Queue: 2 jobs
Job 1
Amino acid sequence: MRLDYPHFVLDLASIWRNNSPNSDAGQRDNMSTMKKLLIVYQSFTGGTAQMAAAAAAGAAGVEDVATQLVTAAAAGPEMLLASDGFLFACPENLAAMAGLMKDFFDRSYYPVLEQLNGRPYATLICAGSDGSNAARQIERIATGWRLKEVAPPLIVCTHAQTPEQILSPKQIGEAHLAQCRELGATIAAGLSLGLY
Ligand SMILES: Cc1cc2nc3c(=O)[nH]c(=O)nc-3n(C[C@H](O)[C@H](O)[C@H](O)COP(=O)(O)O)c2cc1C
């Protein structure tokens, strides 16, 4: 599966390969014992997608953790239940989390309630100028699920203000992508070490 954005191409298979041992039998055994990190994201103009991909790349450097990067539209309760930790990534739109991200939470909230207690999570927000409301909304949902926040929300502002800027493809700077990689590596390392 490939996700193509301006200046940005991610081969998801490479993430799984990076985390997988060589032999088929070893792969089967190892996959069953590996901790699983689920990254759910939504993006309209590519900014959040780059942040989520960077977090996935950071997590891919940690042994014993399998990272799954999926869009909010494709994600649901089964993926949540099958995962040991989560990164939630979306833009702030109209002072709220992006609609498809909210749809993911709406579809998933009650089917997994009381079944994710204590699992770790963190949030990535891509915003024009704020992002705090989207982060707060996700935090409230995560509190309802009794997830454990492992880092403060990572909010990246693209400084898009005019309609033209807002609708243009985004390019997240290397310094912010490095923060996303570090967050992905941090939660994956915590999973690998059994910290949570
Ligand atoms: C309909 C719409 C509403 C927006 N509302 C906000 C907002 O309330 N606060 C904010 O900081 N940015 C807002 N933005 C800007 C986006 O958050 C910003 O462009 C972000 O980089 C988009 O992320 P993406 O590239 O992953 O789609 C809005 C963008 C759109 C299209």
Job 2
Amino acid sequence: MSGGYDVELFVDTPDYDLICTICQGVLRCPVRVACNHVFCKKCILQWLKRQETCPCCRKPVNQSFIFMMYKLSKSISRLRIKCKNETHGCDATFPLSEEYCHSTACLYELVPCPHQGCGAQALRRDLETHTQRCEHWRQLCHMGCGTLLSLQTQAQHNCYRQLRQEHEAQRQSHRAIAAALQRKMRKMQNTMAHMKRQIGLICESLEVMDSQEEVENAGETTTASSSSSSGSSSSS
Ligand SMILES: [Zn+2]
Ligand SMILES: [Zn+2]
Ligand SMILES: [Zn+2]
Ligand SMILES: [Zn+2]
Ligand SMILES: [Zn+2]
């Protein structure tokens, strides 16, 4: 019968008068009946359903004369107990009142795997190792691409590397475009310089032609009017 606390849990063997004679455990919610015998509340209520006498002294017990023993309950709650996971390796001891609090943090407590559909249990300290290898592991890609990854697809999925490669490829194509533009510009500059030189040459040759014409014209005028001058020059 699971009325009181298991005596084995306690660090020091509990006093005899803290033991419930019905369940042989340490009193849980102790109550006193009219004959002054003390039992767990649950134990005596169950007992009275069958017979309304004290299990210790056989005196009649009236269900409506049962008294809660708060002080005794308090002092029992201060008794030190061992962790129920001692067999798994926990060597912690603490007051009975802190049992629940410890069980929520105990590294040797069996806890269920949080992944949906797994159903496996592991010691709290081993849970992380399990969940990392659990085949029910699912996680959204932390790079934010929205892919739901499993253990199998996680290895192949390489969001970051992919993004980097794409980025690198883009940068290279940008560089190639820039280089091509630069080459074109240099070509144009060369062509322009070449054209400038050509134009220069053309201009020079035009000037030469002009001056030749001038010379010729001048020569004509001089020859036209020089018949006298040449005569004079020949006379000189
Ligand atoms: Zn009991
Ligand atoms: Zn009694
Ligand atoms: Zn523990
Ligand atoms: Zn799992
Ligand atoms: Zn991704």
